[in-house]
Design a protein that fits this description.
heterodimer; A: mainly beta; 2 domains; three-stranded antiparallel sheet; 53% strand; B: mainly beta; Jelly Rolls; 5 domains; five-stranded antiparallel sheet; 2% helix; 44% strand; elongated
């Protein structure tokens, strides 16, 4: 399958901080061109325009959802090598809510908990209990697609088990 | 003509032109009241002419001179001129016609005719012309008068009239005035020009525009004159028209082709300046195009990308001199108005300027490199580029003018490196852009290529020849992606396979080597095929020592041993056919004759019994080129054998005057030359017809040993020891000597023609001068001339000579000096030293070449 991987660095004005995203296009990106404020992508005789509003793929004229994922690396959350206890979390975002998975064995990068579907904003009320123990943790947020989404923050409640019971 | 419409109360300058709002009434095409239907209205009567209500030609009225009788007071003439202004185009012709009635009964008592009067715009008479005179109207007849007049220069209009005259008191009438040729409308392109001397105001209402060219009308302070515009009518006609069918377009720049009335020239769309590197590493800065050219960066003339040569405008940046490595420039871009260039391991920042003298290097850093032209992009205040490690940046450091490197792409380095690795394998390049509206830098890698299907290897390796340079392959690998790696499991000695899969070298042994050829493409896919490489030889060579015959294959200096044939007893002579399917060997003791048959490319087997009647005395032997006849000397006779399958049957015996020294068949197999001892004729030439040999008439005067036929079997060289060499012509049954001077060098024993048959190689049984046993003679057609002796001489007397069929190698057998091999080319003989020929040589040493042939 002719899939093009595009790495996109998006800059923000706050502290010159940028973030990388990765997009996989189901076609070959052969050239970019800009006209006005729009970015166009060429694939053979097909020209596509990049739009923030597009939440689905256009496949033969029909909208098809495309999935999105936010994936944090393996994080120590404190002193390396010490087992930590994730007690729960709160998620704040807009648009579509994600499915959250927690990775708990960095030796096996595919070892994640089953996904748990979240509302777009869980901050009101208590935290979402999600007990996981591991020296390092990784978090994945999977979005089913079909509508826009935005991640504002993910608050993890982690307790260091060193010296604990 | 486009002109403004007339306007009231407007200031008009002299020369202004207007069009009327209300067009003037069209001019008349016919005179008004020309038949006096309305009485005398519209006519000016002068002289004696008056209106008369007399019945006219068509109505109740005429113009008349009544006449009062001869000598009366009304003798004379008069004109009735019609008021109608007749407009005629410039150069046009007006025709007027009227009817005249003479009242008198006598001819010329009265006269009448029609007239045309031309007036200018000021109503002044310009020209008048009269028609034919009617002076006969007896019995009251009406007769016509007509006139045609061309509009004269300066005329604005015309009027037509009828002139009458009488001189005898008789009445005369005119009527029915008509014209033709006058315009029926306005003159074409009539406009009005202000002709008053100074600027003036137009009136409040539109004047009565005159319809006649040149006529003026006063419009308050403006005087308008009717003028005609000049018009030019252009007709477009094509100068170049292509043909009915598409031409055969030339494909090279500068080529021409004719297409109808058009000639097309093929031109290149490329920049043809020889200094333009035509590379894809390009940047546009300071109105110039910069392009990498190995380790320098060339630039075009300012604002002229077609010019890469003009002095003090186009040129190059010596980027290669600013770096401590030998890599070529791979990336060009601009950063803050400057030109930046990367190679794999360094970065340079150049001040770019339309003036080449103002260009200078601003900064340079080793250790920062990129080879990805498509990935470099100015992004905000920084320049993003793709290094082997990932996306990096160059930007101005805080509070400093120096550039500093950044590692913006570090979080995604593993992913980018993986993509880079795939791109390198695929031979593709990423593309990038900066999308300012979203504040994003995009870097897109092409899709990884996924080869499908299997690799197929086709083709065969060429056959090699022993001792000759060999080059073959590579085989063809389809559906494989370069670079390809080839390997092979086995090769003939002397050959190697190079990285490209081609096999080269010099084969050192004959035979067929089976091998497996494997190819691996850049995706690691492999394919193998079984092949074989065959090495053959062009010439074979038999040599013998006392008890053994050695068969060698070879070419040039390489004559490895094929096989040996050994028998009890001493060998005497070797004979074989051209393809060496049959080899005969005479012996000095029983069985006196042995025969070997070719059973493979490099193998022989003995045939027993070879002859139906075996010779019993040591002798010479000769086999025809086609292997069908064998001649063996038996004491003082020659026995002729004919081949049947693997055996030879004796068919004739020919008596000789002595014992044969040597026997040679002509290449055609038609003649057998035999030289012998013990008296004349010494040389016998036998002509074969079927199975019968007949001696030709020839007597020589001296015995000799060397015999050599030319390829066409028409000349025979005969070496007569101390009596020199005779060259004989043998045609049909006639033998003649071609030379009379016999090159009487002492001891010429054996002869052999050169490949071009322009020279004779001669071996001697004595040395002359001392140490020289091999000589070369040039054959002119009638005489032999000795040329320079070969530098490398055999070490002993020559006892036999043979030349390879391709003429490139001469082999000598010497008496006790071994075998000598020469590379032969015309008169040049250079010694070669095949190391594999180890046979000792004696007085019966023999050499005999044959062609490789095929096993019979």
């Amino acid at each position: 399958m002719s899939e093009t991987t595009a790495f996109v660095y998006s800059m923000t004005n706050v502290g010159k901080v940028g973030a990388w995203s990765r997009y996989v296009f189901p076609f070959s990106v052969e050239a970019f061109a800009q006209l006005g404020n729009d970015l166009y992508i060429r694939n053979g005789d097909t020209i596509s325009m990049v739009s923030e509003e597009a939440a689905t793929d256009d496949v033969d004229g029909l909208p098809v959802n495309f999935a999105g994922q936010v994936h944090w690396p393996w994080l120590d959350f404190g002193q390396p090598g010490v087992t930590k206890m994730l007690e729960g979390f709160d998620y704040v975002g807009t648009g579509q809510g994600p499915s959250i998975s927690i990775g708990y064995d960095q030796r096996h990068v595919g070892t994640f908990t089953d996904g748990y579907q979240l509302d777009p904003d869980t901050l009101p009320g208590g935290i979402i209990p999600f007990p996981v123990s591991a020296p390092t943790l990784s978090v994945k947020l999977d979005f089913a697609g079909g509508e826009a989404w935005n991640v504002q923050s993910l608050l993890l409640s982690v307790r260091d088990l060193r010296g604990g019971p | 003509m486009t002109a403004p419409k007339w306007e009231s109360g407007k200031l008009y300058l002299p020369g202004d032109i207007v069009q009327p709002i209300t067009a003037p009434a069209p001019t008349a095409a016919q005179v008004v009241n020309g038949s006096f239907q309305s009485g005398g209205t519209g006519w000016d009567f002068t002289g004696l002419a008056t209106y008369s209500s007399t019945q006219g030609y068509v109505g109740p009225g005429t113009v008349r001179i009544p006449g009062g009788g001869p000598g009366g007071s009304d003798d004379g003439g008069g004109l009735a001129l019609n008021h109608t202004h007749l407009s005629v185009d410039p150069g046009g012709t007006l025709t007027a016609r009227c009817m005249i009635r003479q009242g008198a009964s006598d001819v010329d008592h009265t006269r009448g005719w029609v007239e045309i009067h031309w007036f200018n715009s000021a109503d002044a008479l310009v020209l008048s012309e009269a028609g034919n005179i009617v002076n006969d109207g007896r019995n009251g007849a009406w007769l016509p008068s007509s006139v045609s007049s061309t509009r004269p220069a300066g005329a604005a209009y015309a009027r037509a009239g009828i002139y009458l005259w009488q001189g005898s008191g008789d009445a005369v009438d005119g009527d029915y005035l008509t014209v033709s040729g006058a315009q029926s409308g306005l003159p074409e392109g009539l406009v009005y020009k202000a002709v008053q001397p100074a600027a003036g105001m137009s009136g409040a209402s539109e004047p009565a525009w005159p319809a006649v060219l040149g006529v003026q009308v006063v419009d308050n302070e403006v005087t308008w004159e009717a003028v005609a515009t000049n018009r030019v009518t252009w007709t477009a006609s094509p100068l170049y028209v292509s043909g009915a069918t598409e031409p055969d377009w030339p494909t090279q720049p500068g080529g021409f082709v004719v297409d109808g009335t058009v000639q097309w020239e093929a031109v290149s769309r490329r920049v043809e300046d020889e200094n333009c590197p035509n590379s894809k590493v390009v940047a546009i800065v300071a109105s110039k195009v910069f392009a990498a050219d190995r380790d320098i960066v060339r630039f075009s003339a300012t604002a002229n990308p077609l010019d890469w040569t003009s002095e003090q405008d186009a040129g190059y940046l010596p980027t290669g001199l600013q770096q401590a490595n030998a890599n070529d420039m791979a990336v060009l871009n601009q950063y803050r108005g400057n030109l930046v260039s990367f190679n794999a391991s360094s970065f340079q920042n150049w001040q770019a300027d339309p003036d080449p003298a103002a260009m200078a290097i601003l900064d340079q850093m080793d250790g920062i490199g990129s080879t990805w032209q498509g990935a470099a992009q100015p992004v905000g205040n920084e320049l993003f580029y793709l290094s082997q490690l990932g996306v990096r940046t160059i930007g101005i450091a805080n509070a400093a003018e120096n550039l500093a490197a950044g590692d913006v792409g570090m979080p995604i380095d593993p992913l980018v490196r993986e993509a880079i690795k795939q791109s390198i394998i695929d031979g593709t390049e990423p593309v990038a852009t900066y999308y300012p509206s979203a504040g994003q830098y995009w870097l897109a890698f092409p899709p990884p290529f996924e080869p499908t299907g299997d690799i197929a290897i086709t083709g065969e390796f060429d056959e090699g020849t022993l001792g000759l340079d060999y080059s073959s392959g590579p085989l063809v690998a389809t559906n494989a992606f370069a670079p390809l790696r080839w390997s092979i499991t086995a090769l003939p000695a002397g050959l190697t396979m190079g990285p490209s899969g081609a096999i080269t070298g010099t084969p050192e042994a004959t035979g067929t080597i089976a091998c497996t050829v494997t190819v691996t493409d850049r995706y690691g896919r492999t394919a193998s095929v079984e092949r074989s490489i065959k090495v053959v030889f062009t010439s074979g060579l038999f040599v013998n020592d006392t008890t053994t015959v050695y068969a060698h294959s070879g070419d040039t200096a390489m004559f490895p041993l094929l096989q040996t044939f050994t028998a009890a007893g001493t060998g005497s002579d070797i004979a074989c056919d051209d393809g060496a399917n049959i080899v005969g060997w005479t012996r000095t003791s029983a069985p006196f004759f042995q025969m070997f048959k070719r059973i493979s490319e490099v193998g022989f087997a003995e045939v027993a019994p070879p002859l139906d009647v075996m010779p019993t005395v040591v002798g010479q032997a000769a086999i025809t080129a086609d292997g069908q006849y064998l001649a063996v000397s038996q004491s003082t006779a020659v026995w002729l054998y004919k081949r049947t399958g693997d055996t030879f049957e004796r068919v004739q015996t020919v008596a000789l005057a002595g014992s044969a020294y040597n026997m040679k068949w002509s290449p055609s197999g038609e003649y057998l030359a035999v030289c012998h001892d013990s008296g004349a004729p010494y040389l016998v030439i036998l002509r074969r017809a079927g199975d019968v040999l007949t001696a030709l008439t020839w007597t020589d005067t001296w015995d000799g040993k060397g015999l050599a036929w030319t390829a066409d079997s028409t000349k025979l060289a005969y070496a007569r020891r101390t009596q020199g060499i005779r060259v004989l012509s043998v045609v049909g049954d006639t033998v003649t000597s071609l030379n009379t001077s016999y090159a009487s060098t002492p001891g010429v024993s054996y002869v052999c023609w050169s490949g071009d048959e322009q020279y004779l190689y001669v071996g001697g049984n004595t040395d002359s001068p001392a140490g020289v046993h091999l000589w070369v003679y040039q054959w002119s057609g009638v005489s032999l001339t000795r040329v320079a002796d070969p530098v490398d001489q055999p070490g002993a007397d020559v006892v036999e000579m043979s030349r390879s069929k391709d003429g490139r190698v001469l082999a000598l057998a010497t008496n006790g000096g071994g075998y000598a091999m020469y590379s032969a080319s015309g008169p040049d003989l250079s010694r070669i030293s095949p190391t594999d020929i180890v046979a000792a040589s004696g007085p019966n040493a023999r050499v005999q070449f044959f062609e490789s042939g095929d096993a019979a």
